[in-house]
Amino acid sequence: MDLPVMPPLRPMLARAVAEIPPGMHYEAKWDGFRALVFRDGDEIEITSRTTKPLTRYFPELVEGLRERVPGRCVLDGEIVVARGPRLDFDALLERIHPAESRVRLLAERTPASFVAFDLLALDRTALLDAPLHERRAALTAALRGTRQPVFVAPATRELAVAEQWYRQYEGAGLDGVVAKPPDLPYRPDERVMTKVKHERTADCVVAGLRHHRTGPVVGSLLLGLYDARGRLQHVGVSAAFTMQRRRQLMEELRPLVMDSAEGHPWADWAREEAHAEGRMPGAPSRWSGGKDLSWVPLRPERVCEVAYDHMQGDRFRHTARFRRWRPDREPDSCTYAQLEEPVSYDLAQVLTAPR
């Protein structure tokens, strides 16, 4: 491979802000795997945000890219999997599998798409130093008329349109809105864009904790909600605390620590065979990187309020943010019924929005 922009390369990143800023180039924030595509003739390499190779996991994308994108180019975008009118991040996670036979099977069952939103090189020209508006024009020209599995991300310069997208697109499984200065050159691995994500709050039962890697202080709180049958389901974790706060939380929760998981709603977590029977929180995975996933059961008696952006199935898509204790709430009142559901929106309408 001989391109004017070569791997390894880390993509340009965004920092979170509370409101959509005016005077920007706006795009939807996709809920998938950030990926860079390098093509030099028949050679195609797909790399992750951390430069890890993704090519082998998406053979149908490799074939589609060969048919749909210029013969020599470097693209920045997102790999997504859609089921019906929504993105499905769980199905995308399943695509990362060590077995070649499984990779091929999933490529047929849950084919992925690539949504391109930046062009870093074309033919023999590097575009990293070109302003965004020039790269965008080159991208739409290079991918004009493309179709599944390669799309160009919709974009607008109108703040009102971006605000409408922010309200509507969540129903199609998208994360929010990304805002980019129109004259911004491409700056790898720097947080020079901004992103506005949806945030809601929920009252959750704190039913366990994991120790921090440095010692016996709180690393993360394990959060639960009761389902319609009265079972406490694990919905995610809250983990962003200062070291002082980790020590404080450990002292606050120490009276709730159980000697064993016996009698705990998640007692099956302690049984290895239970993990083999199905996907359970706390099980080792390809994404755990060998981390210690052991946990400390707590009597499920305390309630906290957390902020979250959106749900993926029956759990929080990202780590929830601890807001406060809720001594006024009873644990059994913490149910899925309190969660806000976004209005449904067809993903096909997102992909045919203005470019």
Automatic annotation (TrEMBL):
- Keyword terms, alphabetized: Ligase
Q: What are the ATP-dependent DNA ligase family profile domain coordinates in residue numbering? A: 105-231
Sorted alphabetically, the Gene Ontology BP terms of this entry are:
DNA recombination; DNA repair
- What is one Pfam family matched by this protein? DNA_ligase_A_M
Q: Does the keyword Ligase apply?
A: yes
Which E.C. number(s) belong to this protein?
Answer: 6.5.1.1
Keyword Mitochondrion belongs to the record = no
The record lists the organism as Streptomyces hoynatensis
Per its UniProt entry, which superkingdom is the organism in? Bacteria
Q: Give the protein name, as stated in the record.
A: DNA ligase (ATP)
Gene Ontology molecular-function annotations: ATP binding; DNA ligase (ATP) activity
> Which family, according to the similarity comment?
Belongs to the ATP-dependent DNA ligase family.
The chain's coiled-coil residues are none
Q: Reaction(s) catalyzed by this protein?
A: ATP + (deoxyribonucleotide)n-3'-hydroxyl + 5'-phospho-(deoxyribonucleotide)m = (deoxyribonucleotide)n+m + AMP + diphosphate
Tell me which InterPro entries the record gives: Adenylation_LigC-like (IPR044119), ATP-dep_DNA_ligase (IPR050191), DNA_ligase_ATP-dep_C (IPR012309), DNA_ligase_ATP-dep_cent (IPR012310), DNA_ligase_ATP-dep_CS (IPR016059), NA-bd_OB-fold (IPR012340), OBF_LigC-like (IPR044117)
